[in-house]
Write a structure and sequence with these properties.
499 residues; alpha+beta; six-stranded antiparallel sheet; 31% helix; 14% strand; binds flavin-adenine dinucleotide
Length: 499
């Protein structure tokens, strides 16, 4: 692959992180008509390519299909939904509903195609999968500034800027080359996602705040103490619970540091008491003693609206997680912002290896988008590709780069990847968009709103704050163009107009 820049030195991973301006310097040296190379035409790559192209930037979109597919793919078209055909909840009181609405208002290709191929799904946005993917493909192929090439990319391209959007099942060769740049600690192959409970659903009388041996501040953790009977019943329930079967490409080969809870329980009835349920050093102020076992909750957001269950990654089905976790003192009525999972997922330790422009600190000009950054889900992956497309176009055109406001779902999702959050640092795990990523609302007349009203107020705030960003990024123009051409959207194979 031709490049005006020398290849990255193999020692790049050990060099000191470069500032974001290093990426800008690369881009400033680029010939104005040189295309941006995007690897992967999934959710993120497709949206990123469209947003760049709509803003006048030429794109080379390298996609391995149909020559090669990931083990989860079945279609030869782009933006494939490999499992569910749902883009999840549509309501504004649902964080992903808000994210979709923001994308829609900002001129997202994926949202236009999803709305054009939607099927009835109650309160969710579901699509006819092949029609959606076919429509995205035909829109990208027809764009005069996008050149699609079939290529399985085995190394990080030399071209700058380039965007890697190869998704959760990034192949071994490219992943190994990425490790050269980010170091082996910077890339994970499996996620280990712990559930998150809302603070207001915790029974606070049943729990106590303390750190182990009172180190690190008295209230660093919320502790759910168990007596012997409660622990035994919890282990029995874990062992008997229904689990999600691994896919054929997912070996039941987990990292020892992040084993699913039930796998630990299978190793012996005491294993959990020496692992995530270790009670040592946790003095219950009501008894003055350490409990028999103890589940720890760690604060998820600065406002303390949500807590994650430490070490509770699990392959139990979601209904089973809710049933089994209800046995934990303090969590009998818990409401979950997210449930646990462990699956094959290639993603970087974003807070450490990415800068705020989504470029690799160790390789300026190499941007990441989609699930490989540490966002999770079709919509979130598309959203990260959207933000990168918009901001990279600004940078390439020499404009001031304006990231989405933190109060919007786009900005909140991005904040999950930045070093400046509680979620950053060691133990970074992918996440869907959830309300705890948003800045808290100021109390109204000293009172906190009820949950539903609070989410609605956060959504209202987001849509107001989005407006100036749409002006700053030229999104209105792109949206007008997208809706202008919506009348030409056709359901592939049917010849039937959709808009
Ligand atoms: C088994 C499975 C089930 C899932 N189920 C759901 C679900 O139900 N709901 C949900 O919201 N999310 C689900 N996800 C997550 C979902 O796949 C992602 O969130 C989303 O598709 C990621 O978008 P992306 O653009 O980052 O990657 P993808 O959509 O995976 O796109 C990556 C693209 O890059 C191409 N590519 C990869 N490597 C190369 C290479 N070396 N050279 C050239 N091209 C390459 C691929 O062919 C693909 O087209 C699932 C993931 C998996 C693995």
């Amino acid at each position: 692959m031709a490049s005006e820049h020398p290849p990255e030195s193999p020692s790049a991973s050990s060099s000191a992180p470069e500032s974001p301006s290093a990426s800008s310097a690369h881009e400033a040296r680029r010939a104005p008509d040189e295309p941006v190379v995007i690897v992967g035409a999934g959710m993120a790559g497709s949206e990123c390519a469209w947003q760049l192209a709509e803003r006048g930037v030429r794109v080379r979109l390298l996609e391995q299909k149909p020559a090669r597919r990931t083990p989860a793919a079945h279609l030869d078209t782009f933006a494939e939904m490999v499992c569910s055909n749902s883009m999840r909840g549509a309501a504004m009181t649902n964080a992903v509903g808000l994210l979709k609405e923001e994308l829609r208002r900002a001129g997202s290709l994926l949202m236009a195609c999803a709305d054009a191929t939607s099927v009835p799904a109650g309160g969710a946005l579901a699509v006819e999968r092949a029609a959606f993917s076919g429509l995205v493909t035909s829109r990208l192929r027809a764009h005069p500034r996008i050149r699609v090439e079939v290529a399985e990319v085995l190394e990080v391209p030399d071209a700058r800027p380039c965007v890697l959007a190869t998704g959760p099942l990034t192949g071994d060769a490219l992943a190994a080359d990425l490790v050269r740049l980010v170091g082996s600690a910077g890339l994970a192959y499996y996620d280990a996602i712990a559930p998150i409970v809302t603070a207001e659903s915790i029974e606070w009388d049943e729990v106590f705040r303390a750190s182990r041996y009172d180190k690190g501040g008295d209230d660093a953790y919320v502790n759910c103490p168990m007596n012997r009977e409660q622990y035994e019943a919890f282990v029995d329930a874990l062992l008997a619970a229904q689990k999600v079967a691994p896919r054929e490409f997912e070996e039941a080969r987990y990292f020892e540091g992040c084993l699913p809870l039930e796998v630990m329980a299978e190793r012996g009835r005491e294993t959990l008491r020496f692992g995530p349920l270790k009670p040592v050093g946790l003095t219950d102020p009501r008894t003055g003693r350490w409990p028999y076992a103890c589940v720890q909750l760690r604060q998820e957001d600065p406002a303390g609206t949500a807590f994650n269950l430490v070490g509770f990654q699990s392959r139990m089905t979601w209904p089973e997680q809710m049933r089994v976790f209800a046995l934990i003192p303090g969590l009998a009525k818990a409401e979950y912002a997210r449930l646990g999972s462990v699956h094959r997922n290639t993603f970087v330790d974003a807070p450490t290896v990415l800068d705020e422009t989504l470029a690799l600190r160790a390789a300026p000009g190499v941007y990441l988008a989609g699930q490989v950054t540490g966002v999770e889900g079709y919509v979130e992956s598309g959203a990260s590709g959207f933000v990168l497309g918009v901001t990279l176009a600004q940078r390439l055109r020499g404009e001031t780069v304006t990231p989405p406001p933190a109060t919007t779902a786009l900005g909140a999702l991005l904040s999950h990847l930045l070093p400046s959050t509680l979620r950053g640092g060691p133990g970074f795990q992918p996440s869907n968009v959830v309300w705890s990523m948003f800045p808290a609302l100021p109390p109204r007349e000293g009172k906190r709103l009820q949950k539903r009203d609070r989410y609605q107020a956060m959504a209202d705030r987001a849509l107001i704050d989005l407006e100036p960003w749409l002006d700053a990024t030229g999104a209105r123009l792109v949206r007008a163009q997208a809706s202008g051409s919506a009348s030409t959207l056709e359901r592939p194979g049917s010849g039937e107009a959709l808009a």
